[in-house]
């Protein structure tokens, strides 16, 4: 387990989506706490992470073994395994959450995770999501994002509501105070020019970037 020097306490939450290795996590903060959510435990070895807690109903963890006690929940529950991991991380005082294995897998779970990340950001939690080669952060009013990305990195702003006052700098096609309707493709497939900054006056969005091979 690696400890950060910043004041924010960071948890890596290993969820059961896709993870491409080697994972490009160089822009991500290192963890103070690692929690596996059910089948997400399979990502630990490839990332060289020691898991501190393992939670879920364990319906998708067949064959996975970790040297850590399981916190078993019933299959008939109101939360996803990812939500159980989130609750535990917040209870441990974590204010920055990195969901590893966030994309791919079951669409309903991935969609709920992405929308839940926006809700967490609105509560003041710093949220990151990754599947090793695809990454995202929620973008909400009053919480501008700044990312140092290699020049030419493909990035998109995905509007999950109508957006007002979207500004985007450090990209091939910058925007200033733009209004973007829900689900618009206008803000997809931009390219970074180094330090990227995104800011929003109203609405909810996800800033998504890709580190895919050619």
UniProtKB/TrEMBL annotation:
Q: What is its EC number?
A: 2.7.6.2
Would the keyword Nuclease turn up in this protein's UniProt record? no
- What Pfam families has UniProt attached to this entry? TPK_B1_binding, TPK_catalytic
For this chain, one GO molecular function annotation is: kinase activity
Question: Known SUPFAM superfamilies for this protein?
Answer: Thiamin pyrophosphokinase, catalytic domain (SSF63999)
Domain Thiamin pyrophosphokinase thiamin-binding positions? 142-206
InterPro entries attached to this UniProt entry: Thi_PPkinase, Thiamin_PyroPKinase_B1-bd, TPK, TPK_catalytic, TPK_catalytic_sf
Keyword tags = ATP-binding, Kinase, Nucleotide-binding, Transferase
Q: Which GO terms describe its biological process?
A: thiamine diphosphate biosynthetic process; thiamine metabolic process
Classification via PANTHER family: THIAMINE PYROPHOSPHOKINASE
Name used for this protein in its record: Thiamine diphosphokinase
User: What phylogenetic lineage does the species belong to?
Assistant: Bacteria, Thermotogati, Deinococcota, Deinococci, Deinococcales
